[in-house]
Design brief:
This protein is α/β, with parallel strands linked by helices. It has helices spanning about 65-75, 85-95, 105-115, 140-145; strands spanning about 1-5, 10-15, 20-30, 30, 40-50, 50-60, 80, 100. Strands 3, 4, 5, 6, 7 and 8 form a 6-stranded mixed β-sheet that branches. A two-stranded antiparallel sheet has the order 1-2.
């Protein structure tokens, strides 16, 4: 038995066992949503040994706090979003889900980035509730720092 680490996420596996992970990305169609609480859908990705083996898009019709149980019931291990309020973040964490905040770009790419250990959370939560203007920018999104600058 060994422990693998993805940034601060750890998972125990048996020797020779494939590395499996199920990731949900809060999205607007196929792009990472700027805010978990306002996402149109979730993109679920099952990844085994670095390959996406299953992909599913689920329409989001749940309130913020019901989403955590829904994601847990769907065996999600990691939730990725552009932004997220403290209430939603705490609810996800209470179900044992790993939360990554500050992502942007295509959901599929972001899921693979996390799996490969190349995506870390900014840990900056939205603190203004469900207002249209949060009172802060999303400039800490990984895109602003290096995604588009490296192309």
């Amino acid at each position: 038995m060994s422990i693998i680490s993805y940034n601060s996420y750890q998972k125990t596996i048996e020797k020779g066992e494939s590395i499996f992970m199920k990731i949900a990305v809060a999205s607007d169609k196929k792009m990472v949503s700027k805010h978990f609480g306002k996402c149109e859908n979730f993109n679920f990705f099952e990844i085994i040994d670095g390959e996406i083996v299953s992909e599913e898009q689920i329409y989001n019709n749940l309130d913020c706090l019901s989403r955590a149980l829904f994601l847990k019931d769907n065996n999600i291990e990691v939730v990725i979003s552009g932004g997220m309020g403290k209430g939603a973040s705490n609810e996800l964490l209470s179900y044992g889900l790993k939360v990554i905040i500050g992502a942007c770009g295509p959901a599929r790419d972001v899921a693979l980035e996390f799996y490969n250990g190349n995506l870390e959370s900014t840990l900056i939560e939205c603190n203004q509730g469900h207002h249209n203007k949060h009172g802060h920018s999303h400039k800490y999104c990984k895109c602003y720092n290096n995604h588009f600058n490296n192309k």
